[in-house]
Amino acid sequence: LHVGRHGRCCLMERDVHPELSQHSVCHQYAGDWHVRCCVLLGQNLDSSKVGALTVIMITNPQEMGRQMLAEDPGAVPPGVTEPTGAQSKRWVDQAEAKAASGDRLGAIQDLEQALTVEPNSLFVLRTLGSLLMDEGKHWEAKQRFQQLLDQQPEYLEGRILSAIASLKMGRLDEFQSETEKVLAIDPQQPDALRWRARVAFDNQLYAEAGQFYVRLVEAGCADADVLTALGVCLAQGGQWNMAAETFARVQVAHGG
C-alpha cells in the first residue's frame, strides 16, 4: 500500500509514480495498517468503519480504487500533514499543466512555490530556469541555473543552459568560459560544440567556427546544417576544393 500521486492510497504497485514509490504509508505512519488507511482517508477510527474498510480493501480493491478516485484528488485529509515531496509535486504538476496550456507565467509562479518547499530540487531549478529564459528573463534564469550548478558542478546540461543565459545577456566571455568547462569534461559534447560554432559563425569568425564544425562532424553530428555551415567556413577560408566536397556531401547524404 503506497501513498499515490495526491497523497492518497494506491492499492496497486503499478499505479504508484516511480518518484513517489519511496513514500509508502509504512514510512510515514506508525502503528496498525488499518489505522494508517483510515488516517489517509480522513475516517474516524470507528471499529465498524475499520472493519468495512478492511473488507472492501481485501475483497474488492477495484471498488476501493473507484471510491478513492471519486473523491476530490487535491484535498488533504483532515489532520494529515502533506509530505514535503508531495507538496512540491503538486506545484510541479500544476506548473506542467499551465505550461502545456500556454500559461508560462502561471507555470513560473507555481515552480517558485515548489522551490519554497524543496529549494534544492535540480528538476525544479532546471525547469524554472528554462521557462524564465523562454520569457526573456535571462538574469533570473541565470540565477536558477547557478543554484543548480552550486549543487552539481559537473551537470553539463545545466552549465550549457547557464552559458546560453550569459550569451542572451551579452556576456560573451562568460558564455565562452562556461562552454569551455563543458568541453573540458566532454570534448565531444554536441550542444556545447553547436553553440560555440554558431556564435563564431554569426560573428563571421569562420576559421573558429570551422574548427567547431569539424569537431561536430568527428563526433558523428554531420547533419545538413553542420555540413553546410562547414562548407561556408571552408569557402570563406579559400579552401574551395574542400568546400565543394562538403557541399557535395550534403547533396548525397541529405538530398539538399
Explain the overall architecture.
By secondary structure, this protein is mainly α. It has helices at 25-28, 33-41, 47-59, 61-70, 84-100, 104-117, 122-134, 138-151, 156-168, 172-185, 190-202, 206-218, 224-236, 240-254, and strands at residues 2-3, 9-10. Helix 11 packs antiparallel against helix 12 (206-218). The radius of gyration is 27 Å and the shape is elongated. It starts with a strand and ends with a helix.
Order of helical and strand elements: EEHHHHHHHHHHHHHH
How much of the polypeptide forms β-strand, as a percent range? Answer: under 5%
Main-sheet strand order equals: 1-2
Q: What is the rounded Rg?
A: 27 Å
Share in helix: 55-70%
Q: What characterizes the major β-sheet?
A: 2 strands, antiparallel
**Helix/strand-derived class?**
mainly alpha
Secondary structure tally, helices: 14
Poorly predicted runs of 5 or more residues: 1-51, 53-58, 64-83
Mean pLDDT: 76
Global outline: elongated
Through-space gap between termini? 57 Å
What is the tally of beta strands? 2
Keywords:
256 residues, mainly alpha, two-stranded antiparallel ribbon, disordered N terminus, single chain, 68% helix
Write the layout of secondary structure elements.
Layout: E1 2-3, E2 9-10, H1 25-28, H2 33-41, H3 47-59, H4 61-70, H5 84-100, H6 104-117, H7 122-134, H8 138-151, H9 156-168, H10 172-185, H11 190-202, H12 206-218, H13 224-236, H14 240-254
Antiparallel strand pairs: 1-2
Helix pairs in contact: 2-3, 3-4, 5-6, 6-7, 7-8, 8-9, 9-10, 10-11, 11-12, 12-13, 13-14
